[in-house]
């Protein structure tokens, strides 16, 4: 019988040394999808070695792309894409599969793929993606959990006005618009840095795009997009996770390879709590808060505190004296880690979208389960500073978004190791 891998750690770790941030998962996913638009060989650097990326690349290969590594670069050749349908067996493995909607529809005038489905953090509707594509002339239907979109005479440029800013929805419309002759306007667009990184690639391919990083974006597309070569931006959530680790146990923890300007609000919050942070260029040095104070946190879209940092911040607040609160404004059901943190001795109560955290002197190590990627990261942080041993199950969810998390923490002094069979992270070295 296969023993599923777990992470184990002994508690009360001090983190000292330098930890490096990898390339961004959530920037890599749409950029991989965007390569479908140009029928060329594209070269990507700094693509992280993660399960989500492996699965995205497998879908690309199913569509007909050639994906292979050469000298640490990922080459993606998309001239021979012949398939415009994605089977449920592939699409359901990764929510990012929704990012194929815009590029495949733009390339073929037809796409069929399964609804990516709900997940542990909420229902995650895609109505805004569909609304946007309809505004570009698509005929979209949703039947039995399958999305079918047609634009038999081709999509046309237009005006898309989102009711809520959506990151992958904005990416889908940007990608479609970049390959259409003419001008498309996107209003109430997502402003996240991952959108800016995608736009940088679309500009390299030959589209003219203004306004990325703001809520109004203008895209002048072209039907003859060129090949692109790009270095993926640093992962701002991985960087933020290490900053929280530093605030918990850094003496000091030095973080390199991140982008400081993506962390402005998080840095302010950690300083308000009592952590000491020094910044030099893109090097961030975090000393743990010796006299931490309770704080109030609300998640928001960029440049606010990301929902993807909410669980990790909750671990940090669990042992801060006094009463802290966290309000989750992005996803309606993103508090599954509360149960696990409470099993470790935390005192957290959830009232709708608000969690009230009564600081306890220490967390106690035990066996816990990762319910989603960021919840898993929060449990790693909890295990690192708890008293006694912690074992985390279902760690494949952590491998979706953190590259070699146990090696990186072990290198800065943590007692953490992986046990059991199963792949460690997941990017096979794709061969030509
Ligand atoms: N929403 C709608 N309708 C839509 C789309 C979104 O109502 O058609 C709502 C959502 O329910 C949510 C809000 O809009 O309340 C924002 O959702 P968004 O669409 O921006 O999320 P996403 O694009 O599906 C990306 C990241 C998530 C991250 C969110 C928020 C990727 C692949 N995923 O998801 O990352 O939490 O943006 O920043 O980029 C993670 O990495 O752990 C992760 C979950």
Automatic annotation (TrEMBL):
Q: Where is the Enolpyruvate transferase domain?
A: 13-408
Kindly list the GO molecular function terms attached to this UniProt entry: UDP-N-acetylglucosamine 1-carboxyvinyltransferase activity
Protein EC:
2.5.1.7
Reaction(s) catalysed (UniProt annotation): phosphoenolpyruvate + UDP-N-acetyl-alpha-D-glucosamine = UDP-N-acetyl-3-O-(1-carboxyvinyl)-alpha-D-glucosamine + phosphate
The pathway that the record names for this protein is: Cell wall biogenesis; peptidoglycan biosynthesis
Any Pfam family from its record, for instance, is: EPSP_synthase
Family membership noted in the UniProt record = Belongs to the EPSP synthase family. MurA subfamily.
- The protein in question is named UDP-N-acetylglucosamine 1-carboxyvinyltransferase
